[in-house]
Amino acid sequence: MHSAQELVTNIVTLATLPTVYLRIREELDSPAGSTAAVTHAISADPALTTNLLRLVNSAFYGYGGRIETISRAVTILGIQQVHDLVLAVSVSSTFSVFRPQHLDMPRFWRGSVMRGLSAREIGRSHGMIGAERLFVIGLLSDIGHLVMHQTIPDLAFEARTVATQNQEPLHEAERRIAGCDYAEVGACLMNYWKLPACFADIIGAQMTPRLGGDYVYEAAMVHFATRIAQADQENESSNAAAARIDPVIWSLLDMQPADLRRVRESAELDLASYITMFFPRLGHEHGHI
Prior knowledge:
Layout: H1 4-12, H2 19-29, H3 35-43, H4 46-56, H5 70-77, H6 79-95, H7 105-125, H8 132-140, H9 143-151, H10 153-166, H11 170-178, H12 182-192, H13 197-204, H14 216-233, H15 238-243, H16 247-253, H17 257-278, H18 280-286
Organism: Aromatoleum diolicum
Protein name: HDOD domain-containing protein
InterPro entries: HDOD (IPR013976), RNase_Y/CdgJ (IPR052340)
């Protein structure tokens, strides 16, 4: 049996976030942090600069090509939002080279982007300030599975197989067979990377949002987004997906089954373009994702 800490300790030797991201986080954490220092750190990395400008000028933000420099991006979006985007780009770059046994990577990243887009759309529809951060949290919410399939591939595969055969929740099978589940592993990785506390709290509580502390609603949104991503991957109808969502979640988010279809359609609209933006190498290698 394995602990989440053990798996994360094994993975971080292979998955270290880029220095430029760490410098941006230092600026964000520092009382004396400045937009000029963040701009300088990003601008020193040409590939990151290109990716970031492409993202901020995409339909994702709606500035329509009007942001031409990193300094303007930082000024308009703010350090926190730039931090989140650099984090998303850094993680996609760091992990897209992984080819774990038993895991279909194009399918995995498609599901992750779908989670992110769905979570952001739910946050926006609730009028949440900073809903864009939910995209990044949603994108990272399944990363525990990537860690498990990289470090204990046979046990991760066995848990998935048993859960499917028994029609059992996957996280329960993982705990029984591997000793920990993907939400625990993901939260542990967020803590190890010293990300803002909300990342670990939301990702760790995504299967049981009521345990999310100050982030119960955000955890419920990610939970809801996960159900949508699963429906997408299993070619399940929106009605069938809605039927599998706990009444407590519907009540907590004050949403109706029709909302699931709306959120799903919105996410599907942006899915292909965001896969291309965050995972260009993966898309190129496979022709499609």
